[in-house]
């Protein structure tokens, strides 16, 4: 395992390099895309050669960001000339995808910048702040240490990252510090109305069909303390869903009054079950529950990928949640 470094040490290292690659986790969310573009574009303005890689395409929702077309799938082999691989918003190498994970092994130097408590400090240099609301919040002081100008494209990217990871500045991770960062980004030219319309008011029709499906078929457990929905592979095909369409499903059911835990169980085509977990009670840490099944994340938002049948996996995870709720009572 690598050691922890300061913003200054990492800025010094990056300053000494000519060519870097920035990578973030597969099935990217707003923080993954926004942080990748924020750092990648900023390093370009500093005269670096920069590649930006994410396995699975940039979701359509974020494709309006300037530079989004520069983000590509990672190459099978690290190109000659890349001196350093910078991993963003990623708690462990396998979240980069199989190709990305292998790249961390072949890169001469790796830098890990993240905000997952469960981060395994897998890189040569690690800058991890478990309490930060988004990876972008860890990046901002680094950009300052690098002397990178906060251009509008960089500010837009960082704003999307912080906005989406804080649930539009609603989660308790939204500290005064986060709001100050938001203010800086607005001063740098972010058009709040325009960006939020693009993020939240441009839902395609199949997303409505999916929402209808979720609301019709959600299930309750443990005296309504737990709400969950299961999407079978067959139903996914019928609704013609893309990978990115199910990303925020859990937000539809988590709003139920009285619910402490919300979950989405998704049957993927390759025999994997993907589970999104959200807690509404700080005493219920869903990343601890996820860890029992090889998953991880944050106390209030976590994920699991597990092989097995939908009913088997659902039964085991719900049982673990019942135990957590019972030990609390
Ligand atoms: Mn994040």
Order of helices and strands: EHEHEEEHEEHHHHHEEHHEEHEEH
Radius of gyration: 20 Å
Structural class: alpha/beta
- Low-pLDDT segments: none
- Report helical residue fraction: 25-40%
How many β strands by DSSP?
A: 13
How many structurally independent domains? 2
* Average pLDDT score: 95
CATH top level of the largest domain is Alpha Beta
List the ligand species: manganese (II) ion
The amount of beta strand, in percent, is 15-25%
CATH architecture designation of the largest domain: Alpha-Beta Complex
Descriptive overview:
The chain contains 12 helices and 13 strands. It has 329 residues and is α/β, with parallel strands linked by helices. A 7-stranded parallel sheet has the order 1-7-6-5-2-3-4, with helices on both faces. Strands 8-9-10-11-13-12 form a 6-stranded mixed sheet. Bound molecules: manganese (II) ion (MN).
Brief summary:
This protein has 329 residues and is an alpha/beta fold. It has twelve helices and 13 strands. A seven-stranded parallel beta sheet has the order 1-7-6-5-2-3-4, sandwiched between helices.
What distinguishing features does this structure have?
alpha/beta, inorganic pyrophosphatase (n-terminal core), 2 domains, globular, Diaminopimelate Epimerase, Chain A, domain 1, 329 residues, single chain, six-stranded mixed beta sheet, seven-stranded parallel beta sheet, 13 strands, 40% helix, binds manganese (II) ion
SSE order and pairing:
Blueprint: E1 3-4, H1 7-15, E2 19-24, H2 30-45, E3 49-54, E4 71-72, E5 84-88, H3 98-106, E6 110-114, E7 125-128, H4 135-146, H5 152-165, H6 176-187, H7 192-200, H8 205-217, E8 219-221, E9 226-231, H9 233-238, H10 250-254, E10 261-267, E11 272-279, H11 286-291, E12 296-297, E13 301-307, H12 310-328
Parallel strand pairs: 1-7, 2-3, 2-5, 3-4, 5-6, 6-7, 9-10
Antiparallel strand pairs: 8-9, 10-11, 11-13, 12-13
Helix pairs in contact: 1-4, 2-4, 2-5, 4-5, 5-6
The structure holds manganese (II) ion.
